[in-house]
Amino acid sequence: MGWSPRAWVLERLDARLTESQRRLPPGELWRYRVLLGATLLMMVLNGLYVLGVPAYAAEDRLPPLLVVGVCMAAFGAVMALMRRLSSPTLPSILLCLALSVGFILGTLSVDSPGSVSHAVGMLIPALAVYLLGPRRGFFFTAFLMLYVGAFHQLYHSGFGLTRPVFQNSAAWMSNLVACVSLLMSWALSWLYGTVREESQVELERALQTLRGSEGKLLSVLESTEDVVVALDREGRVITANLMAKALGQRVYGRTLERGGHLDWMASPGLQTLFQGALTGKRQRLEMSLPVQGRPLTLDVTFNPVWEGERVVGATLFSRDVTERKEAEARLAELHRGLVDVSRHAGMAEIATGVLHNVGNTLNSVNVSAHFVVERLRGSRSAGLDKAVELLRENASRLGAFLEEDPRGRQFPAYLAALSGQLAQERESVLEELRRLTESVDHIKSVVSMQQQHARFSGVLERVEVSTLLDDAMRLHAVSFERLGIQLRREYTASASAVMVDRHKLLQILVNLLSNARHALLESQRPDKQLTLRVEEAGARLRIAVADNGVGIAPEILQRLFSQGFTTKKDGHGFGLHISALSAEELGGSLQCESEGPGTGATFTLELPLA
């Protein structure tokens, strides 16, 4: 930086002040500076005046030298008092008094127009107002005005004894102008001082407000658990809160200091984010730092700092999210475990339905098989063997045997009767075999349907909801018929196809149907009724499973989809919770409505059509 005259002068003035004076507020410090500067300037001017005194005649040298001596003594006293006293008031009064007396003594002997219009006289009111205030300054101004406007000419006219008082009208007019100039100098100095004081007051108020706001802001920054760092365009630290310093000590073993660079800037990702913030865009990144063998995860955000339309730096906000990330990982693991448990529960529920249907069908297969065995055991085919044996024994005389032997004469009728019985046995066995085949086909269809639904788990495909709902119903068909549950289907949707994971949707439907079956079973009412509705609601497809079972109390309704909550004695509390989560994963929602115990319940699943 180049040489500055102002800084050079202030440095020289402050060097002659005491340490306590240099620590004063700006207003008092400047008063001391002006007092010292004015005194030194007057001493220099007096010295220059002394150098010009030899040009006078010998008899005229003594008065100026006496005046200079008195003034110099006064200036020396001002310098001494200024260093000894804690207030600049008395040295300022002495300086203004010395200047006034010196001005009067220096101009009193000069009898010419304009002699009292010296520049020093104009300086005294301004200096007095600045150093002593308007009232005390007016005292010195009025004193000089009295001397300039009246006493000077009265003194030279001998107070009217040596010449008429108003003989020199030009001098009177010049002195009157000088008197008005003195008054104007005081007035302008007072006006400037007043404006300056008001500005100083406003500035002090603004500074106090700024300090208060700064204190509050610093208090907020220090009380937050987030890391807050202000950076300039070069990445140097302007300010950092306690959390930032603690993090720097924890990660790098040293505290972040003003003017230092962040070690994080060595990371290419953070450097990229910082440069992006300097372009005026907010940047965010999650980064991991190794601390004592354990990864520390930080959520880092850079925000640009604007000065008008120019970015002058950036603020770095960072938060330790290690515990949150670990909790999210544990929650994800728990969710995966719940999904597995729910899937196993759903598989068990579906397997139960499959076993019900297959078991009942196997009963029919067993009955048909026993019937066929019994028919074969009691078949008349043994009589046919006896007839063949009889014909073999009489093969040599077969004609005589049929005509003469009593057994032979009955043989055609016996064969006819035997043929009829064997035909009946054949029809009955074929009928049982047909029923057996149908039962086996039913078992194959149940198993094939289960395999079909289990095969496409996790794959999005176009699914006809009404068809899938019927498949889910068939898994419970036997138990519904055995319990006397009346089933109603209300499929009003014109296009009920959605893109979903077939397995998840089937799992939700099976859970809802299972819950409805339990609710109807517990109700003990004779008119058990289950209603299935499929309808469109705007851009969503609504699937409702309604029963007239035991119903749900309002306090239970609020916790129905909570993890682990169940009202069943042998329940696990996962079915509805996972069903609700699966509905959200499918882009839909699962809700339940019930007017209270004994009024039944309606579970509504909504899925997006698009």
Q: What are the segments in which pLDDT stays under 50 over at least 5 consecutive residues?
A: none
Q: Sketch the major β-sheet.
A: 5 strands, antiparallel
Helix content: 55-70%
Number of domains: 4
Return the structural class.
Answer: alpha+beta
Strand order across the largest sheet: 2-1-5-4-3
Count the strands? 12
| Average pLDDT | 77
| Head-to-tail CA distance between termini | 70 Å
Radius of gyration: 58 Å
Label the overall shape: rod-shaped
**Number of helices, counting only DSSP H or I runs of 4 residues or more:** 19
Strand content: 5-15%
Give an overview of the whole structure.
The chain is built from 19 helices and twelve strands. The chain is of the alpha+beta class. The protein has four domains: 199 residues, no CATH class; 97 residues, Beta-Lactamase, CATH 3.30.450.20; 121 residues, no CATH class; 153 residues, Histidine kinase-like ATPase, C-terminal domain (Heat Shock Protein 90), CATH 3.30.565. The strands form three sheets. The chain has a five-stranded antiparallel sheet with strand order 2-1-5-4-3, with helices on both faces. It has a five-stranded mixed sheet with strand order 7-9-10-12-11, with helices on one face. A hairpin with a 4-residue loop joins strand 1 and strand 2. Helix 3 packs antiparallel against helix 4. It is rod-shaped, with a radius of gyration of 58 Å. The two termini are 70 Å apart.
